[in-house]
Amino acid sequence: MISFDHVTKRYGGFTALDGVSFEARPGRVTGFLGPNGAGKSTAMRVAAGLTPATSGRATVLGRPYGTLPNPGRHVGMLLDASAQHAGRTGREVLTLGAILTGVDRRRVEETLDLVGLTEKEAGRRVRNYSLGMRQRLGIAHALLADPEVLVLDEPANGLDPAGIRWMRDLLRGYAARGGTVLLSSHLLNEIERVADDIVVIGHGRIVAGGTTRELLAGSGTTVRSADDARLRSALGTAGLSASPLAAGGLLVDATPEVVGAVALEAAVVLRELRSGDGRGLEEMFFDLTADAAREEVAA
Ligand code: ADP
User: How far apart are CA 56 and CA 67, in angstroms?
Assistant: First the structure.
C-alpha cells in the first residue's frame, strides 16, 4: 500500500504538488497518469523519501519510506533509468544492489532472466545500453529483493511494443500475487491497458481517480442501432440529448435502461447498448496535455 495524504511540494514560489491525496492498493496496478510536468516524478520522489514534502505525508506500507527497516527489501523503485552507473556492467549493477539489500546473489541471474537481458547484454557496460535495455535493467533492479511494493516512473519509455507488452504481463502477474504497483506514464493508452486503477494528475493536482473501468466508461450511454437518425429523433422527443460518435452510433446523456426503453417505443433495432464510451477520461486528458504543450511553447 502507498498512501498520499494532502501532499504539497513547493519549489520557491512554484507549487509542484498541491494537496495530493490518493492510494495505491495491494493486488492492483495503479496508473499515475499526467502530461509532462504534471508532478508525477515529484510525487514518486516524495514517496521514496528523496524529496521532502512541504506539507502532508506520503507513506509506503504504513510508514514514511525512510523509516522502513531495510526499505530496499520491501519497496522496488525505478525512478530514473539513466541514473545507473554507466561504467558498470548490468550484472555488476545488480550484484551491487543484491549486496546492499542483503539479497542472495543467485537473484541476480534470476532477475536478468526475468527481464530478458541476455548473458551477453548483462556483461556489457551500461553506457552502451539502449534506453530500452536500461529500462529493463532498472526494472530488474527494482525486482531484485522480490519486494511487496513497486514504484516505477515511466517504465515504458524506450521499450518497443514487444517490450511494453512484456512489462504489462510482468506487472499484472506481480499484482495478481498481491503486490502493489504504482507506475506513471504520460500516455493514456499505455496506462489503460495495464492499470486496475487510474489517478490523473494535472498542474500538481489530482483531477480524477477511480477504477480504470469506471473512468473509461465515462458518463452516459453509447448506442448503435439500425437507424441512428430515427433513434436520435425519438431520444430528442423524450427530452434526451444525443450526440453522434465519430465511429458511428450515438452518445446519450441517460442510462442504458432509459435509452433501451426509448428505442423499444420507437421500434428501432439496437445493435449495441453500453455504458459510456471513454470520452470523459480521454477528453479530460487531452485538455490537460494541450495545456501542458501550450505552457512548454510559452516557456
Ligand atoms: P512529471 O514527472 O509529471 O513530468 P515533475 O514532477 O518532474 O513532472 O515536475 C513537476 C513540476 O515541478 C515541473 O514544472 C518541474 O519543472 C517542477 N520541478 C521538478 N523538480 C524541481 C526542482 N528540483 N526545482 C524546481 N522545480 C522543479
Answer: 16
